[in-house]
From TrEMBL:
The lineage of its organism: Eukaryota, Viridiplantae, Streptophyta, Embryophyta, Tracheophyta. It comes from the Eukaryota. GO terms for cellular component: membrane. Residues 133-267 form the Fatty acid hydroxylase domain. This is Fatty acid hydroxylase domain-containing protein. It comes from Eutrema salsugineum (Saltwater cress). Keywords: Membrane, Transmembrane, Transmembrane helix. It is found in: Membrane.
Length: 298
């Protein structure tokens, strides 16, 4: 809640005119409580879980019907019907209503404790980006170790096996997991904002971007035009797909966002070996295809 009655009063307090964005924020948030603003995350998460994977459903349906997009599918032998994908969405929504939504409603005291602010001035773009980088790095490191723990015998059999039901992940399967895993993985999500608390808008952006990233990572497609390919040490869909492909025995590619933890702790050796092998096979096929006067290898 903003402690000023008017834009003029806020301008006086800041000693300058409000920017256009600050006026928009003032008009929207001045009479809303911080709890109400925090609960916007429920709506954002619902929209992201529902809408962001939709283009992937269309791509998968086109691929199943005509083979379009086959070249971008990481595990092309696996085809998901519309009803498979809808079942996954239905289960994710159940989890959303029973766990994620209520968790958002009751976790507000932690937001108060770490002092997420909702007033003016708004943070600069640089501040938002710097905090988001910190949040992603902290989440990635913490998630790596929790995920690795979930792959011990007890953790996998009791909890994590549900997330691995999809050996070839789909967008809707990003949050598909045991309720206990959903709760525990809330800790790395909150840890970054707890270390470097920012504005409510930064917090909204963080929650939204983290979920969109998880959906992309579970998309099952490696599109060459994906912009995240330009982010240094970014794992992406192919990287995490390997983790699901190997399944329960997987001791590889635990990281949720970047690749550096797996590299440092030596848990990407199987993946790198497999990637090198596939590259060699591809190059040899290309060579023999040329020698036989065949068409361009694809
Ligand atoms: Zn796993
Ligand atoms: Zn996964």
């Amino acid at each position: 809640m903003i402690p000023y009655a008017t834009v003029e009063e806020a301008s006086m307090a800041l000693g300058r005119n409000l920017t256009r964005l600050e006026v928009v924020w003032f008009d929207y948030s001045a009479t809303k409580s911080d709890y109400y603003l925090y609960c916007h995350n429920i709506l954002f998460l619902f929209l992201i879980f529902s809408l962001v994977p939709l283009p992937l459903v269309i791509v998968e349906s086109l691929r199943s019907a005509s083979g379009w997009f086959d070249r971008y599918k990481i595990q092309p032998k696996v085809k998901n019907s519309f009803s498979d994908m809808f079942r996954c969405y239905r289960d994710v929504m159940k989890m959303f209503l029973l766990v994620v939504g209520p968790l958002q409603l009751v976790s507000y005291p932690s937001i108060q404790m770490i002092e997420i602010r909702s007033g003016l001035p708004l943070p600069s773009c640089l501040e938002i980006v710097a905090q988001l980088v910190v949040y992603f790095l902290v989440e990635d490191y913490t998630n790596y170790w929790i995920h690795r723990f979930f792959h011990c015998k007890w953790g996998y059999e009791k909890i994590h096996h549900i997330h691995h039901e999809y050996t070839a992940p789909i967008g809707y399967a990003a949050p598909y997991a045991h309720w206990a895993e959903v709760l525990v993985l809330g800790i790395p999500t909150f840890l970054g904002p707890a270390i470097a608390p920012g504005h409510m808008i930064t917090f909204w952006l963080w929650i939204a971007l983290r979920q969109i990233e998880a959906i992309e990572t579970h998309s099952g497609y490696d599109f060459p035009w994906t912009l995240t390919k330009y982010i240094p040490f970014y794992g992406g869909a192919e990287y995490h797909d390997y983790h699901h492909y190997v399944g329960g025995q997987s001791q590889s590619n635990f990281a949720s966002v970047f690749t550096y933890c797996d590299y440092i702790y030596g848990t990407d050796k199987g993946y790198r070996f497999q990637k090198k092998l596939l590259q060699q096979i591809k190059e040899e096929s290309k060579k023999s295809n040329k020698q036989n006067g065949g068409e361009k290898f694809d």
